[in-house]
Each structure stands twice: as C-alpha cells, then as structure tokens.
Amino acid sequence: MTDTKDSILNSAERLFAERGYEATSLRAVTSEAGVNLAAVNYHFRSKDQLLKALFTRGMQRLNRERTALLDAYEAECGGKPVPPEKLVHALIGPMLDASRDRSRGREIFGMLLGRMYASPKGPLDDILVSDIEAFSERFKSAIRRALPGTSLEELYWRSFFAIGATAHTLISSRLIGIISNGLCDADDREAVLERLIRFIVAGLQAPERQGAKGKKAGPTGKKWRGK
Amino acid sequence: MTDTKDSILNSAERLFAERGYEATSLRAVTSEAGVNLAAVNYHFRSKDQLLKALFTRGMQRLNRERTALLDAYEAECGGKPVPPEKLVHALIGPMLDASRDRSRGREIFGMLLGRMYASPKGPLDDILVSDIEAFSERFKSAIRRALPGTSLEELYWRSFFAIGATAHTLISSRLIGIISNGLCDADDREAVLERLIRFIVAGLQAPERQGAKGKKAGPTGKKWRGK
DNA sequence: GTCTATATGGGGATAGAC
DNA sequence: GTCTATCCCCATATAGAC
User: Fold this and answer.
1) Residue A175: closest C-alpha in chain B
2) Are B131 and B63 in contact (CB under 8 A)?
3) How far apart are CA A13 and CA A122, in angstroms?
4) What confidence category does residue A100 fall into, taking pLDDT thresholds of 50, 70 and 90?
5) Å between A47 CA and D15 C1'?
C-alpha cells in the first residue's frame, strides 16, 4: 500500500489550499498526515515537486469531470449547439463542486486552484497552462457554436473573466457574509453556483462592441473617464 | 525627509505584488529600496505591520479615486440614477488604472490587492473588510437606484463576482496571451477595461431567478446536473 | 520504505555603537 | 535615524541506520 504517498498528497492539498504554499511547512504536512518528515523527500523529490504532483492530479480529475459533463450535454442536444448555461456549468461546476454528497475533496482542490491562479509567475505556469489547454479546446468549439455572433477574441476574454469570478468565489467567499451583514450565505453552494452561472451567461452574451476593434483612445477612451 | 520610509513602502509594494508576501524577504525589500535592513523594524514594527501600513495606504487612495469618480458621475446625472456602466467604472476603473499616464503606481497596488483577496484568512481581513466597507455603502445606494428590479442579495453577489473577475485580470492576465495563442493582448489596458465593464454590466443586469429564493434542491438542483 | 539525526541556509528581529 | 553584527528559530533537504 502506498498509503503514505496518498496521505501526504491529501494533507498537502488541504494545507496548501487553506494556508497557502509558502506559508505551509513540510513539517505541518507530515505531522497532519501522520507520516515521517523524510517521507516527503523519498516519495517526491522536493516541496516543489510535491506541489506539482498534487496540482497535476487535481487538474486531471477536474478536466475529466468537465469533459464528462460536456459529453453528456452534447449527447443530450443531439447535433444542436449546447446552450450557454450548460457550457458554463461544465466549465465551472466541477470547480465549485456543489454536489449533494459533500466529499470535500474537490472543493479543497478548487481553493488550491484559485490560489494558484493568484500566485506569482513561476514553474507552476507550465502545468497550469498545459492543463487549462487540455479542456479549453473542447470548450472553445462548443462556445463558438453556442454564441456564433461573438468574436473569438471576445469569447476568450469573457471565459477568462468567468474563471476569475469563480476563482474569487472559491477563495474569498468568506468575505461576502461579512460585507453583506449576513444577508448573503456562501455556504449554500448550489445557490451560489446558480447565481454564478446566471451572471456569467449574461456576461458571455453581452453585446459586443461595435466598430474598430483593438483601437484605443477615441470617443471610447473619453467615455470611461469621469468628467 | 522620510525618504527612507517611503522607499521601503514602495519597494515592498512592488515586491509583495510581484512575488507574494511570504516569498519576499525583508532583505530583498531593503536591498531594492537601498536602505538598511534594520530600518524596517525601526519605521514599522514588523514585516506584518509593514504590509498593513502598505495596504491601508493603497486602499485609501483607491477608495478616494472611486469616490471621486462616483461623485463626478452623480453630479453629471443630476438627480437621475447613474447608469450601470458608469457605476462599474467607478468600482473597478481605479483598480485597473487604465489611465493614459502610466505611472505604474496603482497598477502595482492592484496586483497586491488581487493577491490579498486570494490570501488565506488572517489579520489582513480586518483591514480588507473595513476598507471595502468604506466604499461599499456609497456603491450600494447607487447600484440599487440603477437596478431597482434586482434584490439586494443578488446585487451583493454580482458585485462580488465583478470584483473577482477584476482581481483575476489584475493578477493572471499574463496567462491569457498564452492560452489564446497570442490572440488576446493583456497589455492594452483600456481595451481590457472596456471589455470587463461590458461583461460585468451584462452580468449585473441578468434576469433574476424566479420563484422561491434560498431554496435548494428541487428542479433547479436537477437542472444543473448533467443527465 | 521508514525512521533519527543532522547539515545547511535563510528568515525576522534586536542590541547597541555611531 | 542609521548602521553593523548577531541572536535564534525554523525551513528544506539529506545521510545513513534499521
């Protein structure tokens, strides 16, 4: 049994997600996992490699779930384009994991993922980008079919914003209860997912800017400037 | 002249934003600032207090700019509600700082802010929340007037998502060029701001969910689950 | 594969001279 | 207010016995 290896992965995932990578010591990881400190360097080569292993495992699982959802939706729609709300669900649903059975596993990785997005550029970028690309091709084709009137450039940006809103929700939803004076409940994950999907779908469908694209200045530049 | 104190603040702001707080040593800060290591502990009490001072300074500046924009827009509209795109600009424009004069100052703080949102819960939360609240009351009144048909709870969530999309843009826009194969240009800040505003405004105006609110399960739960 | 013990370095913080 | 020198802790990583 490689019980040890998995224990380390799971503990590290949880601690890195909760406290951040830099702020978490390997001692904390091994102590929580109930294994010896040296085991980390035996099974992984370094703290850095541990993070990479961890991250790859999670991303593959995530993309598997996204792909499965997309497959199901496409089958369900026959040859017709899958409606945007279902595409958005396939993209972000597995990140939030608002499933009825709270295994907590994915939710934790979601936090870690959100934190990785916000991390400084580094060797992680390779993994991040390559794993993002693993799903983004599938998603790109589907979203183009769903929203044929919108340019590809705009669709990239809007999908990017969608990921941002989702990552923020994963990571700092603790704040919204405080800011809203208890009006908003971040723990009702299904309701949050639904709100998020509604927001993103509307954003994806926003009217595209008319006229010259990529042009700066002009009347537009003035428009957004106060007075 | 408290040249030293300001040098430390500026260097720390840049380094914390670029590399993250934990990953930045005080030695790196003082060496970049061209001051002595001990100066940090003389002018601030600790690394932690340095971050707080830094953060407070930046948030106050940010909120001053937001408030000024909102003031201008409200004056411009007479008694009538300020249109959503202007409110959104007041909220996120100063974070992105797509101004013509590239002083770089605010942009850097924007990155730091984005990173702080993504940081683990800690003593920073107090500052973060209190400084957010400093502007959110103003913004709340204005957005309610602009979108009277939407519940306050929903408006909180959607503003939260808006901040998330913006923070993500501040922090990981380096990724979009790679993912889009060079199609998207993150350096054209004015164009990005405009796209972001368009996306958020559409999200804010999304149709609100009909029927029981806060209810889980039911047909909705089924709706978002694939097959 | 797992443990103990330790090497090695870097970090924040401070004392005390100037 | 600024510097040098140093304290002391905790981190990652490894060597080598079991």
Assistant:
1) B129
2) yes
3) 19
4) low
5) 19
